[in-house]
Automatic annotation (TrEMBL):
UniProt membrane topology term: Multi-pass membrane protein
Subcellular location: Endoplasmic reticulum membrane
The organism's taxonomic lineage, starting at the top: Eukaryota, Metazoa, Chordata, Craniata, Vertebrata
Family: Belongs to the fatty acid desaturase type 1 family. DEGS subfamily.
The protein's name: Sphingolipid delta(4)-desaturase DES1
Stored CDD domains: Delta4-sphingolipid-FADS-like
EC numbers, comma separated: 1.14.19.17
Species whose genome carries this gene: Aythya fuligula (Tufted duck)
């Protein structure tokens, strides 16, 4: 077991997040980027194919031995499930149908949610908009770990366990940090999901349900793609709040690795973020960046100066508008 890290609190900062100013500066210099601010209709067909792929997998695993159900849940189901959460991330930004058809995106998000097994899409959208508006905002941005997480998961072994339990912490953190009243759409999301799960159980039995739920939990826990949770905003270098990843797993994750670009231009679909980087290369090429999410996970566990406390936090001023 590693020694406890030196950090005993978050990195409190008293400046605004850098993304709004950089966005303004880039648009003044490269106004052609505005042409990329449009929906990605191909996202619709990709999501439909992913849902069909998982439905096929639910059918194929129903008569397998349990060891093979577990094997395929991790090797295939986890990748599809984590990729689907990032498709839902794209949909939360109205990338499928555009801002003029916001409700179409909400309904499509509920559809994309179905093969995950647990209701997620509507609640994610509400909290994720806060993450963009109030990055690091104390009591608002639920992407920031709780004080308990920072205090307890402070050794190498405990940090490893924290990575395994990421889905659990992402689920309960909003209830601890920033609980919100349940909305009608969240109830619809819940009822649609329960109905879908019951139908899958009735048609194909418990192994299909296990494959679905295990794939979601495993894919969001100890998994190469889960490196993006830590890579995006954990402060491996003092003073740098957001980091991009330019490795091959962007192909499975709708370019979520282009995270500086995404926070600068959240209304540009993931498909076009490499173009943003290319057009405004002078702004992004020299920022700290990663090429391996697996290395990020390894360094997070093994580096005794990094922990869940390695995040920038802000005390928000003025009126806070939440979804």
């Amino acid at each position: 077991m590693g020694n406890a890290v030196a950090r005993e609190d978050f990195e409190w900062v008293y400046t605004d997040q850098p993304h709004a100013d950089r966005r303004k500066e880039i648009l003044a210099k490269h106004p052609e980027i505005k042409a990329l601010m449009k929906p990605d209709h191909n996202l619709i067909w990709v999501v439909v194919l992913m849902v069909l792929a998982q439905l096929t997998a639910f059918y194929l695993v129903k008569d397998l031995d349990w060891k093979w159900v577990v094997f395929w849940a991790y090797v295939f189901g986890s990748c599809i499930s984590h990729s689907m959460t990032l498709a839902i991330h794209e949909i939360s930004h109205n990338s499928a149908f555009g801002n003029s058809k916001a409700m179409w995106n909400r309904w499509f998000g509920i559809f994309a949610n179905l093969p995950l097994g647990l209701p997620y899409s509507i609640s994610f959208k509400r909290y994720h908009m806060d993450h963009h508006r109030y990055l690091g905002g104390d009591g608002i941005d639920v992407d920031i770990p709780t004080n308990f997480e920072g205090w307890f998961f402070c050794t190498r072994f405990r940090k490893f366990i924290w990575i395994v339990l990421q889905p659990f912490f992402y689920a309960i953190r909003p209830l601890c940090i920033n609980p919100k009243p349940i909305t009608r759409l969240e109830i619809i999301n819940l009822l649609a999901q329960l109905s879908f799960d019951v139908v899958i159980y009735y048609l194909w039995g418990v192994k299909s349900i296990f494959y679905m739920l295990a794939g979601s939990v495993l894919g969001l826990g100890l998994h190469p793609i889960s490196g993006h949770f830590i890579a995006e905003h954990y402060m491996f270098l003092k003073g740098h709040e957001t980091y991009s990843y330019y490795g091959p797993l962007n192909l499975l994750t709708f370019n979520v690795g282009y995270h500086n670009e995404h926070h600068d231009f959240p209304n540009i679909p993931g498909k076009s973020l490499p173009l943003v980087k290319k057009i405004a290369a002078e702004y992004y090429d020299n920022l700290p960046q990663y090429n391996s999410w697996i290395r990020v996970l390894y360094d997070f566990v093994m580096d005794d100066t990094i922990s869940p406390y390695s995040r920038m936090k802000r005390q928000l001023k003025g009126e806070v508008k939440q979804d």
